[in-house]
Amino acid sequence: MGIGSLAARRRAVFLDRDGVLNRAVVRDGKPYPPNSVDALEILPGVPDALADLKTAGFLLLVITNQPDVAKGIQSREAVEGIHGRLRAELPLDDILVCYHQDEDACHCRKPEPGLLQEAAARHGLYLPFCFMVGDRWRDVDAGSRAGCRTILLDYGYRERLPENQPAARVRSLREAVDWILARVTP
User: Fold this and answer.
1) Reported pTM
2) 30, 159 in Cβ contact below 8 A?
């Protein structure tokens, strides 16, 4: 089997962190991350939904912006502590983080596709066979720019809409997983 055939068989679901895996802290209609490991609450149904994706052969890759580190509001150690707990409790294969803020104009901060492209190179993925699941416009636009199919967990936040329409709008990770599994062959 050539490298092209192998890459075509490797699929992943890219997952935003806050609002997808764990409860986001919503203030004035806008989501924010938990500020500590103790404040982290994994959303109901997430472990089972992720287990179903693993059973179907997907890599599970978290792609998250954490600009509060650059802003001095959050410590990198706190973010890494949250990621340690997520790794311990969920069947995640990798977590890629952008610590920049918008003003840094980096390639890795969603809506830019840099972290998805880095993950694809690291894990030998073919992005058109991958999915991006997120709860914000940045997630949908990053996934679209990377060439993935996108799914928006629509919580009705008071913020702009994605430039690119998601392939699906759902209300939970469970619904997103069911949508994905209905569209792929084993």
Assistant:
1) 0.94
2) yes
Q: Residues 120-162: pLDDT tens digits?
A: 999 999 999 999 999 999 999 999 999 999 999 999 999 999 9
CA dist 14 and 151 (Å) reads 10
pLDDT confidence tier of residue 9, bands split at 50, 70 and 90? low
By the 8 A CB rule, do 20 and 127 touch?
Answer: no
Is 18 catalytic? The answer is yes
Catalytic residue among 18, 135, 139, 141: 18
Distance CA 152, CA 16 (A): 10
Task: Give the residue carrying structure tokens 């050539």.
Answer: 2
The answer to whether residue 102 is catalytic is: no
Q: Which domains does the chain have, with CATH numbers?
A: 3-181 (3.40.50.1000)
Alpha-carbon distance of 34 to 24, in angstroms, equals 7
**Who contacts 162 (Cβ-Cβ below 8 Å, separation ≥6)?**
137, 140, 141, 144, 150, 152
